[in-house]
Design goal:
The protein is an alpha+beta fold. It is built from six helices and ten strands, in the order αββααββαβαββαβββ. It has a single domain, classed as Muramoyl-pentapeptide Carboxypeptidase, domain 2, CATH 3.30.1380. The protein is 23% helix and 16% strand. The termini are far apart. Bound molecules: zinc ion (ZN).
């Protein structure tokens, strides 16, 4: 990790405060009323408790993705300003291994960088290799309202442990919305709000509610 990134991540140097919002009430609140939590946590530490279960075809939080991560708005989206390139040699990037297209799986929305870097660390800690399949997609396989069109979604797998475990780790890594998706072959689809960042993360649901 570069010095600048460290500065960014540890700037402010508050001690890590992890608050889990316990209780079923939270699930019934409008997404926009869930309080933001400010904290800095080193990237190899999970920032949410892992849920006890994360079955196929379910998502966390149990709300629609648009309500949690926000709908796409291509009129305000700027690939030049909003996308960043994430490189990490410990990751298997599909576009680096696929010579048939021009897609670049390293390109993600800047709001997705922190949880992506965190999930990379957490998967490595579990002796796995994260596989990144789809990130920013200007066109292609995703539906017209897909957050992949703003680089605010990423599709992940890992062959070294169960997909359910990966879903739990993704949630613990701080993505705003995580789906254990069945469509198109089992994978974990993760997305973030446009203004998500590691210091003002959206919500921290406790596990096993
Ligand atoms: Zn996806």
């Amino acid at each position: 990790m570069g010095f600048k990134q460290k500065l960014l991540l540890y700037g402010g140097c508050f001690s890590a405060v992890i608050i889990f919002l316990v209780g079923s009430d939270i699930l019934h609140q409008p997404a926009e009323s869930i309080p933001e939590l400010a904290y800095n946590v080193p990237l190899d530490i999970q920032i949410r408790q892992q849920p006890k279960r994360f079955p196929l075809d379910t998502n966390m939080p149990p709300l629609r993705e648009g309500r949690v991560s926000g709908s796409i708005d291509l009129s305000t989206f700027s690939p030049e300003n909003d996308l960043v390139a994430v490189h990490d040699d410990r990751v298997w990037w599909e576009s680096d291994n696929d010579t048939n297209d021009t897609e670049d799986d390293h390109m993600v929305h800047k709001s997705l960088e922190a949880p992506l870097r965190r999930v990379i660390e957490l998967v490595c800690k579990n002796n796995g290799t994260l596989e990144v399949h789809d990130s920013y997609r200007e066109t292609g396989i995703h539906n017209p309202k897909s957050l992949h069109k703003e680089g605010r979604a990423v599709d992940l797998t890992c062959d070294d442990f169960s997909m359910e475990k990966l879903a739990k780790i993704c949630w613990a890594a701080g993505f705003d919305w995580v789906l254990y998706e069945k469509k198109g072959g089992a994978h974990i689809h993760c997305s973030v709000r446009r203004n998500h960042n590691d210091r003002a993360i959206f919500a921290a649901y406790s596990a096993g509610q």
